[in-house]
Each structure stands twice: as C-alpha cells, then as structure tokens.
Specification:
Strand order of the largest sheet: 3-11-10-9-8-4-7
Bound molecules: pyridoxal-5'-phosphate
Number of strands: 16
Shape: globular
Structural class: alpha/beta
CATH superfamily of the largest domain: Type I PLP-dependent aspartate aminotransferase-like (Major domain)
Radius of gyration: 28 Å
Length: about 475
C-alpha cells in the first residue's frame, strides 16, 4: 500500500512548474532553486505522513490536490527571514525591533545611495579624491556648535575610537557610578578596555567628587571620561561631577575630557513641551561645556540611521581621523546618506519634530494618543464584527516607554487598546506567526496595542493582523 501512495506523489519538477503557472505572484520573489527546495521539503513532509500511516488515500496526493497546501507552505516558509513587523509595544526606540525609523527623506537618500554611483569619496570641485566625512561634518558642527566632527559605524565604535586614539596603553579616569551595562550584555567598561587602555575607577557608586578625579591623576593618565548613565538612574544621595568641572580639571593637567553621551539629543525636550520627559543634557550643552570629544548614537533619540557620531575640538577629532582603526569602523554610504538627510531636517527644529518618526512619536501628547487609540479601537471593532469575532475592544490609560536606554523612569502617557475575551498569551503567539507579525504587550491578562508606535497606515494593518491571528488560534 505505501508504495502506491509514494508513487501517487508528483515529481518535484512537475509540482514546481504547476505552482509557477498557477501562482506566479507568489513565486515572483523566490529564485527557482529556493522554490525547488521548498517543494522538496513539502513533498518530504507528505512522505513522512505516509510512512506514519496518516495518509491512506492516494487521491489527495495528486498535484492538483496538493497545490493549495503547497501555496500555504511556500507562503510560510518562503518569506525572507529579516522582515517588517508592526510595533504595537509603545516602546519608541525598540532595540529588538530596529530602534529608530528613518524620516522619508532619509530613507529616500539611503535608497539612492544604494542604487546609484555617488560622490562618496569624490570632490566635485576638483575632480579628485574627496573625503566621505565631508558630507556631514559641516552640518554636525553647525548643529552642535563643535569645531569638528567624525562619524563611525555606531556609538560603541565611537567610544572605542576615542579611547584607542587618545588613551591606548594609558589610563582613563571614570566614575564608578557611570560604568554602565546596556542591552545585550554590552558593557561600556569592556569596550573601553578592549581599546587597550586601563580604567581607573573613582568615587563610590552613588557619589563622585572632583577631588576623587584629581587624586587619581598621575603621569599614566591619558584622559578623564564621563559616561552618560542612559538606561538607569541612581536616586537619593547621589552626586556626579558636571562636565564643565571635569573639563576645567582635565585642562589644568593638560588632559582631554571626553564624554559618551549615549543617546545624544539635539532637542531640548523640556522646551519642546514633552510632558514627562526629564531634562537630559543636549549635545549642544555638552559641547558648550568644553568637552574635547563627545560621542552619541545616530539611531537612538536622534532618530537617524545606526551610526556613532563624535563631535569636539579640531585637534582631538583630527587625531581620531588619522587613526588607522577608523577604517575598520567606518560608516557606509547608505548610512551616510540617511544621516545627512536626517541632520538637514534638524536645521529647522519644527520640521525635525514632524518628519523624524522617533521625535514625532516621543512628542505625541496624551490627547493625540487618546484620539489615535479611539481611531484604532473603531477599526478593530469593525474588523472583528465583519469577521464574526466576539471580543471586546476597550480603551485604558497606560504608559509608553522611550526605550533605547534613554530617559529611564520617564514614561509617556498613552491610551492602550485592549482585546478582552481572547486568551492573551495565545493571541500574542499567533500574532508573531503571521506573514506580517505584530508585537504588542500583555497587561492584566489582555493583549494590548499601544498606538504610539503604529505608523500612519498601520492601524488598518494592525486590525487585519488581529483578525488573522484570532482566526488561527
Ligand atoms: C547605547 C549606548 C552605547 C552604544 O551605542 P550604539 O550606537 O548602540 O553602539 C554606548 N554608550 C551608552 C551610554 C549608550 O547608552
């Protein structure tokens, strides 16, 4: 009997051709060898079922009968591994979901840089070789007030480059209260030590004084460094030394003062009237305090592409530019294009707030969030009704988070859309298995969507995802 069943299965090539003919659109993005692998895997699954005695009817093994199942199989397994998801978590700078979204201007610039030749390292005035850094240096200087600027792959690379250039084989003095670990067990002190310098930790976890730094200065000292404690807050009896005082001390001893700002904001959020956001030092303020080099991320609060930006004095930045390690850490052309486009938006703060998604999401107030939640609720209610799903969709006050290790303890008021009457864990898991997966959160036994991180046009997609997921539970 099984032999007859095995023989009833179509040949791979035959099934592949039928799939191609009947479902051209499905096959369009899949190279034929990948498709053949999928068809093979699908047929192998059938052979296993035959072997286990789960299939006994040869009629369901013909090519025509198998085709609908194959379409589903290809739909599920043929998708690119790296793909779009809907972020309904309300965490704006979600490290696991890609941190910052680019402004349309920046996405367009990145796509152009990718598809066409450019003046990446070509000087259009002289027709000779140019510098890839020239495209953003002037903008960074005028936005931050710094004399010079340099961009690398990310902020971890920026910290490494600062220390490798200025402190290799010597000591850098850092406050114990600032030796932070950020996501993915990435520890600032470990990166610092990889650059070949020794950390000289001073002060206590909660308090460090200027005198602590001063006592630590020896002939082995190469720099004094401040690290912004971006993802945690020690509160209570605390003291960290302001940048300006460290600058005075460092310069008195002929040393550079460096700062890793982490997130690095160009916007004063208190002045921008964002409720709940504490004042974090802006890059401009840090530069004005006289730091010789300040580093920050391009894709945290700045809302640009992944990059590490270093601004500071001509002398200090110049040394880093000449460091051969710079080549290994260099920024690529798509990133550079996206960064320039993002920085151009910052020349008009109003424009930056409306065009840069990260800023727009952080800036949305409680009223705007409530209106968005009402619109989303209506869509979901309508979609559920049309699909005959009985679940209640209700609104409840909640909180969104900035994420990305920025503004800890500083939640943004939002309105959550709760799906009640459907097992929350099952819904959460079903949503992850969709072709367009959606990530939300479970609060008080209900699956919740925070509209803050859903972009324009995504409410309809989110409602569709919910319907599809509920149907699959
Ligand atoms: C996030 C962060 C980094 C690392 O920045 P990446 O751009 O992710 O490499 C370094 N230092 C601090 C303080 C940070 O918050």
């Amino acid at each position: 009997m099984p032999n007859t069943l095995y023989r009833a299965l179509p040949a791979t090539e035959n099934l592949l051709t039928q799939l191609h003919t009947a479902h051209a659109a499905l096959c369009a993005g899949l190279p034929r060898p990948m498709l053949r692998e999928l068809v093979n895997a699908f047929l192998q699954e059938k052979r296993c079922l035959i072997k286990e005695g789960c299939i006994t009817d040869p009629a369901i093994l013909g090519a025509t009968a198998l085709l609908p199942g194959l379409v589903t199989f290809v739909g599920q397994h043929g998708m690119p591994h790296f793909r779009r998801v809907l972020n309904a978590t309300g965490v704006v700078i979600h490290t696991n979901l890609g941190r910052s979204l680019l402004a349309p201007e920046a996405a367009k610039a990145a796509a152009e840089a990718a598809a066409w030749y450019s003046n990446l390292e070509f000087n259009l005035h002289t027709g000779a070789r140019g510098s890839r850094y020239s495209h953003v240096e002037e903008l960074l200087c005028s936005l931050t007030g710094a004399e010079a600027a340099l961009v690398v792959n990310n902020n971890a690379a920026a910290v490494f480059l600062m220390l490798d250039t200025l402190c290799k084989g010597k000591e850098v003095i850092v406050s114990r209260g600032e030796l932070v670990e950020i996501g993915g067990s990435f520890r600032i002190p470990e990166v610092m030590e990889k650059s070949g310098c020794t950390l000289h930790e001073v002060g206590a976890t909660n308090r460090t004084h200027v005198a602590d730094y001063e006592r630590a200065i020896t002939e082995r000292t190469a720099a004094i460094m401040k690290v912004h404690t971006s993802n945690f807050r020690i509160s209570g009896f605390v003291k960290q030394v302001p940048g300006s005082e460290l600058v005075a001390l460092a310069h008195q001893h002929g040393l550079p003062a460096l700062e890793d700002l982490g997130s690095g904001s160009l916007v004063n959020w208190q002045r921008a009237g964002v409720p709940g956001l504490l004042h974090e030092p802006t890059v401009q303020e840090t530069v004005a305090a006289g730091l010789d080099a300040v580093s920050f991320s391009g894709d945290k609060v700045l809302g640009g592409p992944q990059a590490g930006i270093i601004v500071g004095s001509k002398e200090t930045i110049g040394k880093m530019q000449k460091n051969p390690m710079n080549r290994a850490l260099r920024i690529d052309k798509m990133t550079l294009a996206a960064l320039e486009a993002t920085l151009r938006l910052y020349t008009d703060p109003e424009l930056a707030l409306t065009r840069i998604p990260t800023l727009r999401m952080l800036h949305a107030g409680a009223d705007a969030m409530r209106r968005h939640a009402v619109r989303l609720q209506k869509r979901v209610v309508k979609a559920f009704a049309a699909a005959g799903i009985s679940a209640s969709v209700v609104l409840r006050a909640g909180e969104s988070r900035v994420g990305g290790g920025a503004f800890p303890e500083c939640d943004l008021p939002t309105t959550l859309v709760r799906v009640e009457g459907i097992e929350a864990e099952a819904l959460r898991e079903a949503l992850l298995r969709l072709p367009l997966p959606m990530v939300g959160r479970v609060e008080d036994d209900a699956f919740c969507l925070d509209p803050r991180t859903l972009q324009e046009g995504e409410d309809a997609l989110a409602a569709g995802c919910l319907v599809e997921a509920v149907g699959g539970i």
